[in-house]
Amino acid sequence: MALIFRYPLTILEKHLDSFGHVNNATYLHLYEEARWDFITKRGFGLARVLAHQQGPVLLDLHLVFKKELTNREEVVITSQYTGLKNKLVMGMSQIIYNADEKVVSNMDFTMGLMDLRERKLIRPTEDWLKAIGSE
């Protein structure tokens, strides 16, 4: 079973659009922030990506909005690896929960590990699989 990573955060004024709620593009930013948090803590941060010239890329995503997120809400983003789709592509699921533990948004996506020199996907390495919690 894959690990579940938790990333708590407070929705701030900078996250809001002119309607007073979180804009769709900002959701993508928040989800990415959560991903970088756990892979960095597990040894696959930007310094490692630059040193080895291998890093994660999103290939597609399905994003669902269920509730509004508004100013100063406390939320938690969970992230969980969902397995290999083929030898180069893997899946992940992320969910934003509000303080009442209700699902605000969820995103399922596929990703790969890219060789930044060759500009092509490579097989996931052991340290990458460890970083994303495929234990």
Topology:
Elements: E1 4-10, H1 24-41, H2 46-52, E2 54-65, E3 74-84, E4 89-97, E5 103-115, E6 120-122, H3 126-131
Antiparallel strand pairs: 1-3, 2-5, 3-4, 4-5, 5-6
Essential attributes:
elongated, Thiol Ester Dehydrase, Chain A, 135 residues, 3 helices, alpha+beta, 6-stranded antiparallel sheet, 6 strands, single chain
Description:
- This protein is an alpha+beta fold.
- The protein has one domain (4-131): Hotdog Thioesterase (Thiol Ester Dehydrase, Chain A, Roll).
- The chain has helices at residues 24-41, 46-52, 126-131; strands at 4-10, 54-65, 74-84, 89-97, 103-115, 120-122.
- Strands 1, 2, 3, 4, 5 and 6 form a six-stranded antiparallel β-sheet that branches.
- A hairpin with a 4-residue loop joins strand 5 and strand 6 (120-122).
- The protein starts with a strand and ends with a helix.
- The relative contact order is 0.25.
User: What's the CATH superfamily, by name?
Assistant: Hotdog Thioesterase
Q: Largest beta sheet, briefly?
A: 6 strands, antiparallel
Query: How many runs of DSSP E, i.e. beta strands?
Result: 6
How many distinct helices? 3
Low-confidence stretches: none
| Overall average pLDDT | 96
- What's the shape? elongated
How many separate structural domains? Answer: 1
CATH architecture: Roll
CATH first level: which class?
Answer: Alpha Beta
Proportion of strand residues: 35-45%
Distance N terminus to C terminus?
Answer: 6 Å
- Which oligomerization state do the chains in this entry correspond to? single chain
Estimate percent helicity.
10-25%
Structural class of the secondary elements?
alpha+beta
